[in-house]
Amino acid sequence: MFLVGAHNCKAATVGFANKSDFRFSLHQRPVTTLPALAGGAQPDIVLAMIVVYIPPNEFLTSRLKLRPSATSDAEAIFEAYATDPQVTRYLSWHPHTVLQDTLEFLARCDRARAVGTDFAYVIEDREEGSILGMTEVRVQEHAVEYAYVLRRDRWGQGIMTEALSALATNALAHPAIWRVYALCDTENPASARVMVKIGMVHEGVRRRHAVYPNLSSEPRDGLVYAKVR
Q1: Collapsing DSSP states into helix, strand and coil, what is residue 171?
Q2: Distance CA 221, CA 217 (A)
Q3: 185-203: per-residue pLDDT in tens?
Q4: Over the chain, what is the mean pLDDT?
Q5: How many CB atoms lie within 10 A of CB 139?
């Protein structure tokens, strides 16, 4: 999912919903090939401890709450932006025409979260409790990719900048993550501005990056922005 138009960077006050806001997941994996130890000995199997980034269950900023999406959000998302052709112009899916489309999308988000690589969050207004959009955190070993969408009546208010700033700050504070990045269509400058405002740098163009069906049936070029430590 890619955003159409969130502007005006505002400083985000980042908080977390509980003490497990920053988690380390330790997985044991057998390693059978290691450099020879002193004296030429080499163990048959050594357990390597690998630190894996798992984003917090919730994020709180000065104006926003980010929480895991659920199928119970379908009606609110359908009414807020999923049917809007202007919002979906630069997205990887057509505007939803029936509520079932949104339910199926959220069910896919649930399955991806269960696998442990893609984490979809609903973005809520902390005061109103209304759903403003969504973002997805895609964990890729030492890097994290972000995708995002925002309802049209909240464009230009710094909402997505605030949300992504919290996400990126948390990821880059983790020892396993060295890079956060996002992409957008070459004709979507509003989305690119969000990336710049959270400190990402334009790295180049990924040719034939993705199909945006509301623009063309052919893969289109994408702008790549990243922040590293």
Answers
A1: helix
A2: 13
A3: 999 999 999 999 999 999 9
A4: 85
A5: 20
pLDDT of residue 45: 38
pLDDT single digits (tens) 143-159:
999 999 999 999 999 99
C-alpha 161 chain-centroid distance = 12
Residues 113 and 21: their CA atoms lie apart, in Å, by 17
Joined together, the tokens standing for residue 191 give 């989305």
pLDDT, residue 194, reads 97
Residues 8 and 172: their CA atoms lie apart, in Å, by 23
**pLDDT 10s digits, 59-83:** 999 999 999 999 999 999 999 999 9
The reported pTM is 0.80
Other Cβ atoms within 10 Å of 186 Cβ, number? 14
Residue carrying structure tokens 């997205």: 91
Q: From edge to edge, which strands make up the β-sheet containing 59-60?
A: 15-16, 59-60, 64-68, 118-125, 131-140, 143-150, 179-185, 219-228, 201-211
pLDDT at 120 over 60: yes
Burial 150-177 (b: 16+ CB within 10 A, else e): bbeebbebbbbbbbbbbbbbbbbebebb
Is residue 21 classed as helix, strand or coil in its secondary structure?
A: coil
Q: Among positive and negative, which fits the CA dihedral 205, 211, 215, 216?
A: positive
Taking the C-alpha atoms of residue 43 and residue 193, their distance in angstroms, rounded to an integer, is 52
Report which of 104, 131, 109, 133 is spatially closest to residue 120, judged by C-alpha positions.
109
Collapse the DSSP code of 195 into the 3-class scheme (helix H, G, I; strand E, B; otherwise coil) and give the result.
helix
